[in-house]
Automatic annotation (TrEMBL), chains A, B:
CDD domains: GST_C_8, GST_N_GTT1_like
Protein name (database record): Glutathione S-transferase family protein
Annotated GST N-terminal domain residues: 4-83
Gene3D superfamilies associated with the record: 1.20.1050.10, Glutaredoxin
Organism: Mesorhizobium tamadayense
Keywords: Transferase
Cross-referenced PANTHER family: GLUTATHIONE S-TRANSFERASE GSTA, GLUTATHIONE S-TRANSFERASE-RELATED
Length: 212, 212
């Protein structure tokens, strides 16, 4: 798989390769990471694997995949531990994965846009609370649905892994703390040994880069 | 499945139930549509099926699903016609589905936000071209990858269905026309008999609502 040579977040587990590392750790599969620089990501060799010039990408024999959601799902399909065996429970776990990526993450990506790309825009201060309110709406719905359960639908699944990966983008925003059961849900996931190994491995890359 | 009783777009095929209708038409499965009003969507009965209060939802025996991406994938897994049999080609088709929902659609959702929700904001005129440029970047990458092929990876698949569903949100923006091969790709998909049946069925609901 590929990951940032120098992650914009300094290895605090925001770059999307964390989701793939975590999935591989959950199912106990070893992996090799190839680091790519920002300029390499826009070169033909990388674009041949990911036409959008992003990380992570994933190679397994002849197969090349991109999109963290797709890679995580591929891993979950091939190895036990991330998808329930019951067909209906499996479909529901997949549904949560899509909900994370297509309903919960889009307003969070808008938040990242306003905080980073539009930091100096004249409308930054006015627009930020609007975007935060759109996120709060989704968090309130998710919070009500989770209730006091440990995970979204029975046992921990790929749906939780992707949802937590999305929610963690809000770690430093304070928004998660407004929903104590969601903050506890993310903390519960971060306490999993597989997550810790993935996080440490990603942080080690950033530490090596900053020392290099 | 559920759909809007009165679609905000007047039935021009933007509401996400079109993606589910289209998938069901491609695999030749009959379906029953239950229309829900905006107020019903936020009531406990609907929230029990979709915690985010959106359409479409999907019921099949004991199974209740939400998220158009998840429902379309569920249909593609259970019926022949939308996923290749070869394992690697199948994984790539799934990758395109995720790319559509998590890489191409987010800036398009920002566009919808700026055009509709922030129509009267003081920053509307300044921000619109920024968002359009983010979309153009993704469209340029997709256009280069598609080249002169008919579909994204060999035969038409669930990846094309979801990607076209996403790109069609730009139908009236003029942005697609800047990339002739993408405009032709969408037109090619819209010419499929299954799409036409899905579109007509959705339009019929809107026509009935406006006459009712």
């Amino acid at each position: 798989m590929t990951a940032f040579e120098r992650s914009p977040d300094g290895g605090r587990g925001q770059a999307r390769d964390i989701r793939v590392r975590w999935a591989l750790e959950e199912v106990g599969q070893p992996y090799h990471v190839r680091l790519v620089s920002f300029s390499e990501m826009k070169q033909p060799a990388h674009l041949a694997v990911n036409p959008f010039g992003q990380i992570p990408t994933y190679e397994e024999g002849d197969l090349c995949l991109f999109e963290s959601g797709s890679i995580v799902f591929h891993i979950a399909e091939r190895h036990a531990g991330l998808l329930p065996e019951d067909a209906n429970a499996r479909a529901r776990a997949i549904t949560w994965m899509f909900a994370a990526l297509n309903t919960v993450e889009p307003p969070i990506l808008e938040f990242v846009t306003v905080v980073i790309l539009e930091r100096d825009a004249t409308w930054h201060d006015q627009r930020l609370p609007l975007v935060e309110d759109r996120i709060r709406k989704r968090l309130a719905e998710l919070s009500r649905c989770l209730g006091d359960a440990d995970w979204l639908d029975g046992a921990f699944s790929v749906g939780d892994l992707v949802m937590v990966g999305v929610l963690r983008r809000l770690n430093r925003s304070g928004l998660l703390d407004e929903f104590p059961n969601l903050a506890a849900y993310v903390a519960r996931a971060e306490a999993r040994p597989a997550f810790k190994r993935a996080f440490e491995a990603q942080l080690a890359v950033a530490t090596a880069a900053s020392n290099g």
